[in-house]
Specification:
189 residues, alpha/beta, six-stranded mixed β-sheet
Length: 189
Amino acid sequence: MRIVAAIRTHQWGEAEERLRAQLQPIFGDDLCVVFHNRPADVVPPIPVVDLTNDWLLSHALRVLRDYGWRCGDYFFYALRRARPGYTHYWLIEPDVFFAGNAADFFARAGTIEADLAGVRLERLDANHRFAREMGGLVPWKAVFALTRVSARAVDALMALRQTYCARAIVPRYFANDETFCYSHMMVDP
């Protein structure tokens, strides 16, 4: 497995720096940040993949007012395009805190061969607002702040999300990252 990890954020502050300090000894040059609409004066100390409204539009992805919060899967798509040589991609948000040995955690997680790995996978109520427009799929969710996806799953999910984005869905009911990704992957062999 060739794995890259990315911090998902819209700012660079104390929490992002703490996470970088925990992850850089583990991932080295395979650590970056995927930044949602980064201000020009923000220059993190690790490589940056910029996710902008223009990038979304050029990749047939819908720009929602809150996509930086709601559509974490967009970060995987941008990361995969910017760093195509990997087999697996980690998305880690700054509110994730490793109280134990983070290197042990990632070593153990590296033995999981699943295309999608996450925390607390469970069914979601079909009447939940993010599940209403899922086209009849059984809705699933997990904690998206710490998620690993294989390259082939990122590619499959991006194509599915582009099709989904072309539908006339009221923004309030537009599926969030965890509902979209886990619901689709649970039916994909």
